[in-house]
Amino acid sequence: MKRVVAGAVGLLAGAALLVGCSDDKSAATASAGDTQANASAGDTQASAGGTTEVKVDGGDLAGLDLNSVTCVKQGGKINIGSGAIGGQQGLGIVMTDTDAPTVESLGMVVDGNALAVSNIGGMQSGSAEVKVDGDTYTITGEATGADINNPMAGMITKPFTVTVSCK
Question: InterPro entries under this entry (predicted)?
């Protein structure tokens, strides 16, 4: 049973990373720095750079290039994703684009551990809360997951804080 849960959490974290980092061909791409781009449809907003901070277990997420973190608003969703630099570290978040946004999924790789938060399909793992201050989103909570190298080691939980500008 533990193998199934650990495998499911790892799969969920990987899926969240892919969704958060996916490339929508209709969306305009954003360059580094505080930029905003609109697609021809006019309803896609993408931004990169700006204020970004990712902390896990009280420390910076080592190996994550904060300049690679992008935010895309499209179709009632906010997708935040990063590129991995120097290993497997990465981040992917999908939130609702409402006055009080909620995290639908969050996936991150931290020191070889796939960690996730999910509120999809009636299944919940981990927890996340979103606070908005203008264009700045602060997501705090606890992500759960398994060690990618040793899934039999059992479940782990780590507190996190992600602060990102999203125009």
Answer: LpqH (IPR008691)
Task: Flag whether the pTM goes above 0.85.
Answer: no
- The count of structural domains within the chain is 1
Residue 50's pLDDT band (boundaries 50, 70, 90)?
low
Q: Decide if 147 is inside a domain.
A: yes
pLDDT in tens, 114-127: 899 998 777 889 99
Average pLDDT for 54-67: 88
Give the domain range for residue 64.
2-25+35-165
12: in domain: yes
More confident residue, 83 or 29: 83
Q: Quick one: three-class SS letters along the chain? A: CHHHHHHHHHHHHHHHHHHHHCCCCCCCCCCCCECCEECCCCCCEEEECCCEEEEECCEECCCECHHHCEEEEECCEEEEECCECCCCCEEEEEEECCCCCCEEEEEEEECCEEEEEEEECCEEECEEEEEEECCEEEEEEEEEEEECCCHHHCEEEEEEEEEEECC
